[in-house]
Amino acid sequence: MTSFDLNAHLNNIYAAFPEGKRKPIIGITANFWNGEATMAKAYYQQVADAGGTPVLIPPVADKDIIVSTLAGIDALLLTGGADFNPLWAGEEPLPQLHHINAARDLPELLITQLAYNRQIPILGICRGIQTLAIALGGKVMQDIDVAQQEAATADETTDKKKSKKSQETAPTKPVHIKHSQDSDRNLPTHSVTVEQDSMLYRIYKSDKLFVNSFHHQAVADPGKRFKVTAKSPDGVIEAIESCEFKPILGVQWHPECMEAEGRPLFEWLVAQAGNFHLAKRLHDRVLTLDTHVDTPMFFHQDVKFDQRDPRILVDLHKMTDGRQDAVIMVAYLPQPKMGESFSSKVHFDVNTPMEYADFIFDKIEAIVRSNRKYISIARTPADLFEDKRKNRKSIMFGIENGIALNHDVANIKHFAQRGVVYITLCHNGDNDICDSAKGCDTNHGVSKFGEKVIREMNREGIMVDLSHASEQSFYDAMEISKTPIVCSHSSCKALCDVPRNLSDDQLRALAKKGGVAHITLYGGFLRKEGEATIRDAIEHLNHAVRIMGIDHVGLGTDFDGDGGVIGLADSSEIINFTLALLKNKYSERDIQKIWGGNWLRVMAQVQALAK
């Protein structure tokens, strides 16, 4: 018998500590009908039975409310319902279009795009799969029958152009099936074929599922961010999933109505939500530092760092979406060829490399001044941790190519006073300091002037960065430098044999002297053939850990300098790297070291030895 004694229920809650076990919070989009936000019990019950905490999201388009909602959930469930207004897809309505739920359209499209930007796991059901498509670059057919009739007409026209022989051998077209059943909602009425290389197959461990069906619309084209993973016998798309290694999945049927048969999808969503929550909490505790970004290369385009600017891979919004704390932003100086002037190689009106580097740092400081509440210039590890405590992002200064010194060792002190934390001795071409991995062995390694540069960098507390250096330059610098060496953005030659990558012997030598090598995301340094992905980056990291140990590795993305791979394409996707590290069984302590702890150890040592 139910007790109506409130204190008895409260005493049951307070009988142990903590009061209850935390369960991942799943935001569920509500339907809207007759002036009321409603939700079918099947949705929230499936989430609860799968181990999640269901929370209703009403259709409100207020940006502050949407952002606050996303900050509090661990996953998003996009539910079924009425048709989208086709104007959102740039189309006019067909006569076969059903009821439009205008109250839901904009709020759900906004929350889907913003959740995608924040890497929040998403499951879309029926209308929800169509929401994914419309919000993220795909297309939806307004009516399946109309689309199939148009396709059949097009096929018939094509057939008439073929020879009689080819018509006789043409494959039989699939029979159209009923996509809106009259049966009970928990009864399967047709089958779908599942691609074996898919999340859906891994969830159900079957290439054929029997599903229910309550729709007359479907995804026509998933867009570039998704791949099709299930179809009905007549070719209608029944499931899509992210092709960017993200936990985003959409199905056309209604698994919430299919009781135990539908639960695996909700268990998948809750599991992904748990992983995402763990990664978020890790980012709250761990400082995340990307040691090499080239965003100033786009300053001549008047980019907007305080906007989500599509021209750059690092900005304040993307860093926030990816829960990233800090970047080392470099002044990149192109190496002039014989007979070229430096000023002809850059977009701004400067005469010397040193003027250009100072000009870039002035630009960064101006960006920081206009956003001082949210971002700061950091010069030491202590500055970084202070910014994190104050919920500010950090930018550190680096120089890529030692020609910034204008062949004058005295200028090292100038850049140290400006806050430069490292100088990459060269770039793609030999300079007066050393030979490049893409050079011509001009100096046979580090030059006499280069020796003076390295020693002065030691005295001024600036880290020596050997990314881009030739092997001989690398080993020469290792001998000359009294402090540990860094490679801010270099990958492993054993996995991708290109001159820019580090051999296992170089990795061992670097570790022996206490230095660090940070894996970079330029695709050509991760694999020689095919498009590089986040999995390739993890393979290079794992290899570096095997050779060097966990205390000598990290990540320098080279974002905005041609860095970025599928699944880790810009700063908004930085948290995906943490999720991959967790999947590869790295501990929180390991992740702290990878995400900047190792680098900051070296930085602190170098700065402490400055005279």
SSE inventory with pairings:
Layout: H1 6-13, E1 25-29, E2 31-33, E3 36-38, H2 41-49, E4 53-57, H3 63-72, E5 75-78, H4 102-117, E6 122-125, H5 127-135, E7 139-141, H6 144-160, H7 164-169, E8 190-194, H8 199-204, E9 208-211, E10 218-221, E11 226-231, E12 237-242, E13 248-251, H9 259-285, E14 289-293, H10 316-321, E15 326-332, H11 353-370, E16 375-377, H12 381-389, E17 393-400, H13 411-418, E18 420-424, H14 448-460, E19 463-465, H15 471-480, E20 486-487, H16 504-512, E21 516-519, H17 523-526, H18 534-548, E22 553-555, H19 574-583, H20 588-608
Parallel strand pairs: 1-4, 1-5, 5-6, 6-13, 14-15, 15-17, 16-17, 17-18, 18-19, 20-21, 21-22
Antiparallel strand pairs: 2-3, 7-10, 8-9, 8-11, 11-12, 12-13
Explain how this protein is built.
Strand 11 and strand 12 form a beta hairpin. The strands form five sheets. Strands 4-1-5-6-13-12-11-8-9 form a nine-stranded mixed β-sheet, with helices on both faces. Strands 14, 15, 16, 17, 18 and 19 form a six-stranded parallel β-sheet that branches. 38% of the residues lie in helices and 16% in strands. It contains 20 helices and 22 strands. The chain is an alpha/beta fold. The mean pLDDT is 94.
